[in-house]
Amino acid sequence: MPWNRNEMAARAAEELEDGMYVNLGIGIPTLVANYVGDKDITLQSENGMLGMGPFPFEGEEDADLINAGKQTITELRRTSYFDSATSFGMIRGGKIAAAILGAMEVAENGDLANWMIPGKLVKGMGGAMDLVAGVGRVIVVMDHTNKHGDSKVLRECTLPLTGKGVVDRIITNLGVLDVVDGGLKIVECADGVTEEVLRAATDATIV
Amino acid sequence: MPWNRNEMAARAAEELEDGMYVNLGIGIPTLVANYVGDKDITLQSENGMLGMGPFPFEGEEDADLINAGKQTITELRRTSYFDSATSFGMIRGGKIAAAILGAMEVAENGDLANWMIPGKLVKGMGGAMDLVAGVGRVIVVMDHTNKHGDSKVLRECTLPLTGKGVVDRIITNLGVLDVVDGGLKIVECADGVTEEVLRAATDATIV
Amino acid sequence: MKKIYGSASEALDGVLREGMLIAAGGFGLCGIPELLLQAIKDAGTKDLTFASNNAGVDDFGIGILLQTRQVKKMISSYVGENAEFMRQYLSGELELEFNPQGTLAERMRAGGCGIPGFYTKTGVGTVIAEGKEHKDFGGETYILEEGIFADLSIVKAWKADETGNLIFRKTARNFNPPAAMCGRVCVAEVEEIVPLGSLDPDGIHLPGIYVHRLIQGTHEKRIEQRTVRQKETA
Amino acid sequence: MKKIYGSASEALDGVLREGMLIAAGGFGLCGIPELLLQAIKDAGTKDLTFASNNAGVDDFGIGILLQTRQVKKMISSYVGENAEFMRQYLSGELELEFNPQGTLAERMRAGGCGIPGFYTKTGVGTVIAEGKEHKDFGGETYILEEGIFADLSIVKAWKADETGNLIFRKTARNFNPPAAMCGRVCVAEVEEIVPLGSLDPDGIHLPGIYVHRLIQGTHEKRIEQRTVRQKETA
After folding, report:
1. Active site residue A17
2. Does C197 touch chain B if contact means CB atoms closer than 8 Å?
3. Backbone CA torsion sign across D120, D121, D123, D128
4. HSE (CB half, 13 Å, CA atoms) of A38?
5. With contact defined as beta carbons under 8 Å apart, do C72 and C94 qualify?
6. Residue C232 above 80 pLDDT?
7. What is the pLDDT of residue D81?
8. What CA–CA distances, in Å, run from C134 to A161, C118, C121, C142, C153?
C-alpha cells in the first residue's frame, strides 16, 4: 500500500539530523515538522526568520509574524529575525542544510520543475529557485504520478525548470529514489510496494 | 598670512550643510568637528558607527567604542552601530554626503594619492579607496606644499593613486581650489594670500 | 534638518513623478507601506514601475494602484492572490519581470551598496538566466544580476526616532531594509516615532542615513492567511 | 546538538590544519577573537592565511602568530602599528594582499552569501585594479572582486545563547558578522553565554546558523589609542 501524505512526511523527517537548519516548502513538506520528534531541528522561513514555531492559538495571531506561505505562526526561544537579503544570503551561501520541497516534475538528472505551467496562470517562483540553487541537500516530496496517472519522475522535465541538476533525493508515495550518475537509484520502496511496481510507475532510467 | 591647521579646519567646516552625513579623515580633518557650530551634522566612523561623539572623559574609555583611527570615543543619542559590510555599503552606495580627507598629492584632474610612498613602509589604504570612490563629495584638506616647499597640488600625481578623478575641492593653508574641466579653479585665497602667491605655489593648471 | 512630515501625502510631495521606479518593502501584506501606497493612489501618479516582492491583493497593498491603472510594470517574485493583476497581465496592460526572491532582495541591497552587478547560481539553467551573462568561478557557472537603483523607496517600520533610525518587528522586517537602501530618496512610515535616545544604538535595524522622510500613522496590518491551532483540552 | 565547548583549544580541535584560510573578525584591537588566536598559537598550526582587516600589534591579536611564524599571508586593508609584521614583510617571509577595507568586508559577506564575484568602483584606476576584470555599467567602470570562502572563521561577540545567536557591543561588531558568514566552520568566543530566550529575537546581530562552535571566556579587550578630553571645571 503506497504511503499517504503523513507517511511521506514522516519518511522525509527521517532525512533530518540533529542540529540541522531546514527549510520546508508548502504542502506535504510543511507536515514534516510534525514528525521530527526529539531531533533538534531549526526551521527557516525565508521571509526572514530562523526558529519557526507552530501556528498560534486562536486570538494570538500577529500580523507581523508570518511564514513564507503567509500563514500566521509563532516564535520560539531560539528565534531570530532578519531581512530578506540576509535570509537569502544564508540560503545562497549554503548555510541551510536541507530543503524539503514539493514538485511538479523531477528528472533523472536532478532537474526540478515546480513553479510554472505554460499557458496557465503564472504566480511566480518566489524563493524556490534560490532554495534549490543554494541549500546543501534538496529533497523532493510529491506523489509519484499526477492525477492522470502519469509519472512525475521523468527522463527529462517538460515544464520550465526551477533548477538544473539540483535534486538529491525524491520521496514519493511509492518510495525513495536518489539522483545518481546515470539515473535514479531505488533507496527504498513504500510498505507493500514492490520494486517492479515502482519501476513500472517511473518514466526514468533506474540504475 | 596662510591659514593654520585650525583655520583650515574651520574653512572646511563651511562646506558642511545641515542634515549631512559626513566622514572625517585623520589629522586636520578630525579638527573639522570642532567648527560645525549649530549645524546638524552626523559623523560616520567607517568601522561601523553613525553619530560619533567626542572623546570620553578620563576613566570613561570603552574598549568596544573606537573610531576608525582606533581612538576611544563616545556615542550620542542618535548613534547607531552596524557591521563593516553595511558601513562600506553606505559609503560605496553614495549615502555619505561628503568626506574630508588629508592627502599627500592631488592632481588637477582630481586624482588623489594619500596611501603609500613606494620604498617606504606601506601600512595600507584602510578605507580611503572606498571613501573616495563612494561618497558624494570629496574635500581634501592639506598643506599646500611639502616640507621641501614643493607643491602637493600637481599636474599629475607621482605617487600611487587612492582614486582617479575623485577630488572635488582642495582646501590648503593658501586657499581653496575646485577641480573643474581643464584644471583647477581658485575659489578663495587665505587671508593675506594673493592669487599670485597661490598660483606660484601651485604646480598645476589654474583655469 | 527635519525628517518628520505630517502625513503620507506631505511626505511624498515633490518626489513623485510619472514613470518612476519605486522600491517597496513588505512580504505579502506583512510590513507593507500601506499609508504611502494609499497616498500614491491619491496623488494619481501614473506609469509606475514597482520593485516589490508581491503585488498585494485586489484591495490592499500595491493592488489598490493596479485598480487605478497607475502601475506599468512589476518586478516581483510572486504575484498570486491578485485577480486584477492577472487580468491586466494577461491582457498585456501590465508588464511583469519575475525575479527569484533572493535575487530581488540582493539586487536591492546591491543597488543601495553601490554594487552594479553580482554573480549568483540562482536561476542558472532556467528561463531566468536567458540573455544574462554567464561566468564560471571555481568550475561552477553563475549568472550576472544587476543592482536595482530606484528613484524612490517606500518602507514600513515599527518605530523610528527623529533622525530616521528604524526598528522593525518580527517578520515585518523582510524587504524593508534592502528596499530602503536602494532608493535615491526613501520615505518611511512607522507606527510610532519615539524620543531621540530611546532606541538602543546596538539595536537599530536601519540607520537614519537611509531615511529621508518619515511619517507616523495608524496601520491596518491585514492578515492574509489566518492559521491557528486549537488549545489542547486537559 | 551542543555548540558550547569548554575552552578555545577544545573548540578548535579538529578544525585547524596547515595552510588553511582563516577569516577573523575585529578592527584594530577592537572586537578581536583574542582567546581563539591564543589557542591557534598554542596549537602551532603553520602556513596560515588570514583574511583580517588588521594584523594586530606585536604582542596582541594576530601579532602573536606573526611572532611564532605561523602566518604565511595576510589579506588586510591596514597593517600599521606592527614592527614584526614589517620586518617579515620586507624580508619576504610574509605575503601581503592589500584589499580596500570595504572591498574586504564585502568580499567576506559575498562569500558567506554564495556570491562568488561582485563589481565595485573602489580602486578603479589604482594598483588595486591591476589584473582584475573591468566592466562598464551605466557608463561607469567597475572592477570585479571575488567572494572570500574561508576554511574557518573566528569571531568575537558580546553575548550568545546556546544556539549560537550572537549580539555584539558598539563598534566591536565591525568585521565579525561578515567574517563569521564566510567560513565553512565558524567558531565564536563571547563574554557571556546567556540562557536561551533571554536575547530579543528582533535584536540578534548574527543568527546561530552561522556559528558552529562557541566558547565563553574572559577578554582583555586592550585599547590601542586611549584618547580622552578634560572635564571642564565650573
Report:
1. no
2. yes
3. positive
4. 1
5. yes
6. no
7. 76
8. 17, 11, 10, 6, 30
Q: Count the residues in chain B.
A: 207
| Model confidence pTM above 0.95 | yes
The answer to whether A29 and A8 have CB atoms below 8 angstroms apart is no
Q: Does D149 touch chain A (CB under 8 A)?
A: no
Chains B and A touch (3+ CB pairs under 8 A): no
Digit-coded pLDDT (tens) for B36-85:
999 999 999 999 999 999 999 999 999 999 999 999 999 999 999 999 99
Alpha-carbon span D202 to D21, nearest angstrom? 32
Question: Least CA distance to D203: which residue of chain C?
Answer: C203
Q: Which three cell numbers stand for residue A187?
A: 533507496
**Measured distance CA(C101)–CA(B161) in Å, rounded:** 39
Residue-averaged pLDDT of chain C:
96
Chain D interface includes C170 (CB < 8 A): yes
pLDDT value of position D216: 98
Which of C114, C196, C207 shows the shortest C-beta gap to B92?
C114
Task: Tell me if B181 sits within 8 A of B205, measured CB to CB.
Answer: no
- Percent over 70 (pLDDT), chain D: 98
Expressed in angstroms, the distance from the first to the final Cα of chain A is 24
Which residues lie closer than 8 Å to D219 by C-beta, 6 or more apart? D34, D35, D156, D189, D191
Judged by CB atoms closer than 8 Å, whether chains meet at D202 and A50 is answered as: no
**Cα distance between residue A173 and residue C179, in whole Å:** 42
The domains of chain D, with CATH numbers, are: 8-117+152-216 (3.40.1080.10)
Contact with chain A for residue D208, Cβ under 8 A: yes
Residue pointed to by grid coordinates 520560539: A76
Could you tell me the three cell numbers for D206?
548574527
Residue B127 Cα to chain centre, angstroms? 12
Which residue type does D175 have?
F
Q: Which chains touch C (3 or more CB pairs under 8 A)?
A: A, B, D
In whole angstroms, give the CA distance from residue D129 to residue D116: 17
Cβ atoms of residues D152 and C156 within 8 Å = no
Assigned C-alpha cell, D19: 595552510
Q: Which amino acid is at C226?
A: R
Q: Residues 6 or more apart from C125 whose CB is under 8 A from it?
A: A111, A161, A163, A164, A165
Cβ atoms of D122 and C128 closer than 8 Å: no
Question: Which parts of chain A fold into alpha helices (H)?
Answer: 5-13, 28-31, 84-92, 128-134, 195-200
The DSSP result for D29-69, as a single string, is TBT--HHHHHHHHHHT--SEEEE-S---BTTBTTHHHHHTT
| Chain segment C164-201, per-residue pLDDT in tens | 999 999 999 999 999 999 999 999 999 999 999 999 99
